[in-house]
Amino acid sequence: MKIAVICANGKAGKLIVKEAVERNLDVTSVVRGDNQTAAQNVLKKDLFDLTTADLNGFDVVIDAFGAWTEDVLPQHSTSLKHLCDILSGTDIRLLVVGGAGSLYVNPEHTVQVSDGPDFPAMFLPLAKAQGKALAELRKRNDVKWTFISPAADFQADGERTGKYILAGEELTLNANGESVISYADYAIAMIDEATKGNHIQQRISVVAE
């Protein structure tokens, strides 16, 4: 299996690459600058400059793009649209590192985590930008996409336990009543989905056991 990880130098991207390499998968890091990942194969190119030809031959493309400041938050939508456009009509699967703010908190799927009164104001613009990108992605039936939301407490330096719970569109709590997962365990879930998953055109979520 050939996997490309876009924006691989980011915190999530590095751990996703590491997980894939440790499973002896054929991994290519797509980075703008010098490769800082465990991948031996490197494609040095900006996400927005990628073409269909660049991604031909890959089985799975993992989009680990992240934008945090308000001026670039719209790139969550524009970057995903670009990737969808160049993968349109192909059999290449697109797995997206998503956010938790767009997870639902009611069975009717009308209220999202980011709608809650206790949602941190500083994260609201990011949650809304990621939610908008997901809403636009849902309209694409020409791409084999999967959007993977982490738990609400997404811990960059959390430990790798090797265990997680696979859930769906709704915010899911573990046995301790927590919605938490480390980047390392999220990376496991991402590579599991890449190698074994079939959640085509679906949003799934993961939480630590």
TrEMBL record:
One of its GO terms (molecular function) is oxidoreductase activity, acting on the CH-NH group of donors, NAD or NADP as acceptor. Gene3D superfamilies: NAD(P)-binding Rossmann-like Domain (3.40.50.720). Signal peptide: none annotated. CDD domains: BVR-B_like_SDR_a. Residues 8-193 form the NAD(P)-binding domain. It comes from the Bacteria. This is NAD(P)-dependent oxidoreductase. It comes from Hydrogeniiclostridium mannosilyticum.
